[in-house]
Write a structure and sequence with these properties.
Elements (H helix, E strand, L loop, with lengths): L2 E5 L2 E3 L5 E8 L6 E8 L6 E7 L4 E3 L7 E6 L4 E6 L8 E9 L4 E4 L3 E5 L2
Parallel strand pairs: 2-11
Antiparallel strand pairs: 1-3, 3-8, 4-5, 4-9, 5-6, 7-8, 9-10, 9-11
């Protein structure tokens, strides 16, 4: 089974930083897209950042310049470094991987990030 386990969420003050980690276990095709999504109360789930197997990244406009997605293939882990956090970043953050061979999305259970003073 493919499992994604997020960690690193918590309470942080505006302007602070947080790093989320997503550990992936199970068999995943080498060609894939990993990403972080978030869902705030009353809002649709949105893509925050994505990274392809070749290393290409993309970000939501709202987080450009503040968030950085990266991965460690050896550790099967994807990270989201979140800097200059704002209250509007408050959401449940979900790790996702799309396996192009299986044509399936796999999701973590989410980790809550709360940005508040």
């Amino acid at each position: 089974q493919v499992q994604l386990v997020e960690s690193g969420g918590g309470l942080v003050q505006p302007g602070g930083s947080l790093r989320l980690s997503c550990a992936v276990s199970g068999s995943i095709f080498s060609i894939n897209v990993m990403g972080w999504y978030r869902q705030a109360p009353g809002k649709e789930r949105e893509l925050v950042a994505g990274i392809t197997s070749s290393g290409t990244t993309n970000y939501a406009d709202s987080v450009k310049g503040r968030f950085t997605i990266s991965k460690d293939n050896g550790k099967n882990t994807v990270y989201l470094q979140m800097n200059s956090l704002k209250p509007e970043d408050t959401a449940v953050y979900y790790c996702n991987i799309y396996d192009i061979l299986k044509r399936l999305n796999f999701w973590g259970k989410g980790t809550l990030v709360t940005v508040s003073s």
